[in-house]
Amino acid sequence: MMLEALSPLPASLNLGLVLLSVLTSGVSAAAGIGGGTLLIMAMAQVMPATALIPVHGMVQLGSNGGRAVMTWRHLDRGLLVAFLPGVVLGALVAAWLLVRLPVGVLELCIAAFVLYSCWGSGWPQRLLGRGGTLLAGALTTFLSSLVGATGPLVAAFVKQHFTERLPRVATFAACMTFQHLTKAFVFGVAGFVFRDWFGLMLAMVAAGVVGTWLGLRLLHRLSDQRFDTLFKWMLTLLALRLIWLGAGRLGGA
Fold first, then answer.
1. Are 40 and 28 in contact (CB under 8 A)?
2. Are the C-beta atoms of 235 and 117 separated by less than 8 Å?
3. Torsion of CA 157, 159, 165, 166, to 10 degrees
4. 34, 28 in Cβ contact below 8 A?
5. How far apart are CA 176 and CA 14, in angstroms?
6. Are the C-beta atoms of residues 37 and 149 closer than 8 Å to each other?
7. Which of 158, 159, 161, 215 is least surrounded by Cβ atoms within 10 Å, i.e. has the fewest?
């Protein structure tokens, strides 16, 4: 009865999503990224399209927020402070500017950026300074309203600043927390009824905290070198998925 009250979905699906939140939050904590993408792929199979993005966004807000709190000692506050004005700017632009690009183009562009960040020779130092960080915050927040795949983009940017695993995980989580917070505002203004899904979101966030704690225990056992390899390959797999999606959408256009 309690499970049925969580959302309009059947009790069995609610339970499955809560358990999946434990797993995907653990993946993001241990590998640095990937859990959010796995979660939205699963949620897309069982949830109405109108609820998918806002509910996933709020669950990811809780997951990333929990991870940021648990790793706050390793957070690069300077990078976050430079990133935040861009988040605000990108959200404001996205609120009134409607950009129409051929379907699939955004996915392919993001995939190219991610792959170069992982396997290229590195970005010019001036792009990693305060101005470049502000621009990254604005661009990725704006793109989050057009394509639900900006996590790899932010992660690829953050990767350029750190060689150690804990600062990378902490700073990425904090940046994504504020990006998902802007989605809460946008969908609220748009009239989405969060109340119908509040129980499920709360349960998934609580489960995500458990998964994050378990994943961070694993993270502490990894060396920086092993984490960097795992992080790089997770980003590469997500980029390949974007190429698949982008090429399919261009072909079907």
1. no
2. yes
3. -20
4. yes
5. 25
6. yes
7. 161
Q: How far apart are CA 156 and CA 112, in angstroms?
A: 11
Q: Alpha-carbon torsion 101, 107, 113, 115, what sign?
A: negative
Concatenating the DSSP letter of every residue in 20-47 gives: HHHHHHHHHHHHSS-HHHHHHHHHTTTS
pLDDT at 230: 86
Residues 6+ apart with CB under 8 A from 128: 160, 161
At residue 253, the pLDDT reads 57
Alpha carbon of 133 to those of 73, 170, 183, 197: distances in Å?
21, 16, 20, 34
Q: Is 169 helix (H, G, I), strand (E, B) or coil?
A: helix
Number of neighbouring beta carbons within 10 Å of residue 226: 11
Amino acid at 55: V
Q: Which amino acid, residue 246?
A: G
Helix (H, G, I), strand (E, B) or coil at 198: helix
Q: Compute CA distances 35 → 42, 114, 233, whole Å.
A: 11, 17, 14
pLDDT at residue 203 in the model: 94
Task: Kindly tell me the number of DSSP H helices and DSSP E strands found in the chain.
Answer: 10, 0
Specify the pTM: 0.79
Parts of the chain with a pLDDT under 50: 98
- CA dist list (Å): 178 to 171, 185, 250: 11, 11, 31
- Strand intervals (E) in 26-143: none
Q: 76-120 pLDDT, tens per residue?
A: 999 999 999 988 888 777 666 545 556 667 677 777 777 777 777
Helix (H, G, I), strand (E, B) or coil at 191: coil
